[in-house]
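Continuing from the previous page...

OK, I double-checked the sequence for peptidylprolyl isomerase against my notes and this is the correct one:
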Amino acid sequence: METQKRRYLTAKVATEMFKLNPEFLDAEQQRQVTQQVERLLHLQQAIIHSQEAAGVTVSATQLSQAWDNCLAQFDCESSFLASLENQGLHRDGLRSALYDELLCELVMERVSCDVPPLAIEQARAYFDSHRQEFSRAAIWQLSQILITVNNDYPENRRKAVLKRICQVRHLAQTQDFAKLALQYSECPSAMEQGFLGWCEQNKLYPEIAAALPSLAAEQLSEPIETALGFHLVRWHQYKPAKAASFEEVLPLLEQRHSERARTYLQKQWLNSLLAH
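Thanks. Re-ran it with the corrected sequence; updated structure tokens here:
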């Protein structure tokens, strides 16, 4: 099964590192993948034969779920099995490779399960010194039609563009905004019928940010001039600025603490394991 495990890891590492199947790797990519696969095999064997692995087993349900996760990446089972064959893998070989992978994950969970809780004082000190991290500016869900000004071309000089954007606004009174955006807008959002999505107020052009509060939801603005050109803007939803409280942030801080602590414990254990 050693060959099967190596083939599985080769396919996995090639995809993770280069988004390619092994047969499409060039010589340098193959060298890097092979090097990483050997490291992983060495690491897996060290973990599996460690004292901490004693008594750890992978359940049939866990193995079946891992198999199903692999299968879910393909349109059908026949495509999945054809891919296995292309990589020189068979069912039992893949199951064996998945079993070892899951076993290593379970051992790593075992050696990092004793994480001390985050002290409230430490959490509050971090929160107090990083409040900006837990707040956001007001946000607007917007759509727009943009026509840019470019004085290098007569038809795109300011006066001509202003006339054109006014004509588009007049059409918008009786025609569908999405179709007009697709037809006239020079913003990439034209391909989304002018939809920009959620935009932070402090990242908008100041002229647009200043105009939005005076508009009702779905109301189309007058032409707004910015350094880019002229915009017709409408907003769909608005969320005011918000600063999260310490109580709201605490679960996130505890999660981060737990993840960092587990990673630290795992690295310490692996370093000790490989040093012997």
